[in-house]
Amino acid sequence: MKRLPSLSLFFWNQRGFSFEVEDFNGTGYLKSIGPTPRRGKFQPDPDVAGVGIISSMIAQAIAVCLLALWTLYLKKRNSKIWLESFTGFLFSVSDMSSILSLAYIINFMLTGKCKMSTYHYYIVLDTVLLACSTIALTFHSCRHVFFSTRGWILRVPVALLIFSLLGIFLSYQFFVHTKNNFPEWVPPVGRNDSGLLLPVSCFFDMDLMNGKENPFSPHRAIKKPGKPGKKKSKPVYVHEPLTETQLSRQLGHPIQNYKIPHFYLYGLLTLSLILGIAFNIWQHFVVDRRAKASKTTPKERRGLRRYARWAVRFLVYGISILCTVFCTVHILKLRSWAEHSGWLSDESESRWYSLGQLLPPMALGISLFMLLDSWGERGRRVKGGGLNMSQKGSKELGGYRHV
């Protein structure tokens, strides 16, 4: 794979959003095809697929799903004390996911795509989608108090930035290269080689996507004319086309970009965020103002509104849980295959004791300590008579019982 001139990694030009190659680290990815493959040459990236970072992101997404479901029960009981604790924990976990996902995106923008394999690109997409899931679910489950905290000044721009950048990347892949080939979703356990080991630039950069460097390129098998002066000289292949055996047993069958589910999951999560914003606006300008004016709502309208709320709530929670389960399973399958493939040059992605892998779980542990302290403080206030276990119509919570 040759080096191509470029001005920057990502940029806007007259043709729209595009990718260009800056560098190639020459780890010998294409050596996976052939009778004597050179294993142990695939460079791991613990900053992207490290066990500590991945475990922290998955744990955060699962924790947000469970706590968001638990807040439904607390809202029904109108338990203000415990609801405040869970809401604070949801905000802290969602903020950590936002920071980590933003770091992922910045790392991808600053790191040449020839230095990032398709395997690591899949990991990045999954982890950022996990963060988007926590953002959308936290916004919806905590919509009553979201704008009553000072943190919304940063949470809203960061959330919009993450969704926008991820949307740009996926739109480029989905709309510009809709029917172009992309490496397989998950390689089978019994096969050690895969197109996932190729740099992701082979499937994004136009100069490489249709060139001989891409084994899935339709132009790989273009024939060149025979030697001049020889009448019977037959044209030969620049590169022999991949056989069915090579695809099935070595590199894997490619899939087209529009069949990759990441874009559809992103669309569903964006819909969830929009519904959360719409519900928050409706809560502020309709429900709260009606409550302040002491206006009563007809019984039929209250029933219809209640059914609509639960329908949207079921949709948002279902989308977030589906995305969390799907991305978690995909990450675990990819990491399991990479560990057993024999291509990783070292075990840096599986080392728990490195500082970069310890910090994300420790940050999650700090949030857990804060949750426990919050429980203890509110419990002491209840015993001292400062608060009741069930405070109805709380002004700070916007009247959970009525929304």
Automatic annotation (TrEMBL):
Protein name: Uncharacterized protein
Membrane-spanning parts: 48-74, 86-107, 119-140, 152-175, 263-282, 310-332, 352-372
Keyword Transport: no
The keyword Transport is annotated on this UniProt entry: no
InterPro entries tied to this protein: Elsinochrome_Biosynth-Asso (IPR053018)
Keywords: Membrane, Transmembrane, Transmembrane helix
Organism superkingdom: Eukaryota
